[in-house]
Automatic annotation (TrEMBL):
Record domain DUF5641: where: 58-136
Organism: Temnothorax curvispinosus
Protein known as: Uncharacterized protein LOC112466403
InterPro entries (alphabetical): DUF5641
Pfam families listed in its UniProt record: DUF5641
Domain of life: Eukaryota
Lineage of source species: Eukaryota, Metazoa, Ecdysozoa, Arthropoda, Hexapoda
Length: 145
């Protein structure tokens, strides 16, 4: 159980709070981990399970299942709560060129979601921003917001 709680703690304390600089090429962020240990926390690495006793393996799988359930709820409940609900009625104040954003990935845990910077805003005919262009370390992409 303590392993599971440590993984949840690492996920919660590694979420980005604020960009460290306004430099468009700098993707470092201030996290709760900075207040705890002075640097960002990293997620706990997965270990190989091949040479493990069956009872320990079953216990480890149970912890992994609990962690995966937590990440699914994290993405479904917490991350969704950060999104503004009336998105089609008005522009969100967080949509600024140069602002940092997270790119949700279905294949990676939340602690490994890439950070990107907003490079341009694309308003609709009514002037409300519905598409943003972002750039991370490797790609430029457009997303509906």
């Amino acid at each position: 159980m303590s392993t599971f709680l440590a993984q949840v703690e690492a996920c919660l304390n590694s979420r980005p709070l604020q960009a460290m600089s306004d430099d468009p090429d700098d993707f470092t962020t201030l996290t709760p981990g900075h207040f705890l240990i002075g640097s960002p926390l990293n997620a706990i690495p997965k270990t190989a399970l091949d040479d493990t006793a069956v009872t320990r393996l079953n216990r480890w799988r149970h912890v992994q299942l609990m962690r995966d359930h937590f990440w699914q709820r994290w993405a479904r409940e917490y991350i969704q709560s950060l999104a503004s609900r009336p998105k089609w009625l008005k522009s969100s104040p967080a949509q600024e060129i140069g602002a940092l954003c997270l790119i949700k990935s279905e294949t990676a845990p939340p602690t490994r979601w890439p950070l990107a910077r907003i490079t341009s805003l694309h308003p609709g005919d009514d002037g409300i921003v519905r598409v943003i262009a972002v750039r991370d370390r490797s790609i430029d992409q457009c997303f509906y917001v």
